[in-house]
Amino acid sequence: MLVSNKFTLSVVAALVVTALYMVGSTLILIEQPNYLAQVIVKALGTIIVMAIIFNNVKDMKGWNTLIFVIIFCLIGDVLLASLKLTDNPDLMFQLGVGAFFIGYLMLGILLLLKSQAVSNRLKVSALILVSVIGVIQYSTLSVTSDMAIVVMAYIAMTTVLLTGALSYFLIDIKLNGFFFIAGLMFYISDSIIAQNVFGSTPVYAAEVFIMLTYAAGHSCLMLGTSKLAIKKENELPDTYTA
Questions:
Q1: What would the pLDDT profile of 101-133 be if each residue is shown by its tens digit?
Q2: Is the whole model's pTM more than 0.85, yes or no?
């Protein structure tokens, strides 16, 4: 019963986290001068995500890496939300983006490692598909020569992330769907940021869509890990719960 309740708890947490992220994006849109409040709201949302995922995966071998993924997301959230609080916003931005780079790369590699049941042919097919999407995305951006390597590296990272999510999804479409959606949402969130920074036409209400997709990604990670925890409990012998 306690394990089954993890899914319900994850659903409630997903709603709370989404609300917090949307409050944070609203504070940015209305140019709320209390920048510290933006930092606290976004950080609180990510801390909730970390707590829920830890509760879900603490007894599952190999999944503790997700905690470090969320820690790097938390670092990225705090750094990017603190741009107005520092005298060196460019450095803060670079560090924040770097934190997300590490976190998402860890997530992609974790999902790839968990996809050993998927044939190499399917993995290569997924990689080719995602790589083509990345090339098309890069061709639509106006990237200066000094930023080209950085942008290509980030697209390569998101390619690993989405390939891992797709590969893991193919193992069990019903069980692992949330992980694929999580990877997809993080990919879309970063794509909107790239379009806003390097694209010729900024996305309307970009901050709202960025935070909605980001919140959806974290929500799916919470829901996905809760389903894995339930599956693990159901596979244990009855004497375990007696």
A1: 999 999 999 999 999 888 888 888 889 999 999
A2: yes
User: Under a CB-based contact definition with an 8 Å cutoff, are residues 241 and 198 in contact?
Assistant: no
pLDDT digits (tens, 9 = 90+) for 149-195: 989 999 999 999 999 999 999 998 888 999 999 999 999 999 998 88
Sorted by sequence, the CB contacts under 8 Å of residue 56 that are 6+ apart come out as: 6, 10, 222, 225, 226, 228, 229
Radius of gyration of the chain measured on its C-alpha atoms:
18
CA distances in angstroms from 21 to 43, 179, 195, listed in the order given: 9, 20, 21
- In sequence order, the 6+-apart residues with CB closer than 8 A to the CB of 40 are none
Name the residue with tokens 């609080």.
Answer: 85
Distance of CA 96 to the CA centre of its chain: 14
Instruction: Please give the full DSSP string across the chain, using - where no structure is assigned.
Output: -TTTHHHHHHHHHHHHHHHHHHHHHHHHHTT-S-HHHHHHHHHHHHHHHHHHHHHHHTTSTT-THHHHHHHHHHHHHHHHHTGGGSS-HHHHHHHHHHHHHHHHHHHHHHHHHTTTTS-HHHHHHHHHHHHHHHHHHHHTS---TTTHHHHHHHHHHHHHHHHHHHHHHHH-HHHHHHHHHHHHHHHHHHHHHHHHHHSSSPPTTHHHHHHHHHHHHHHHHHHHHHHHHHHHHHHS-GGGT-
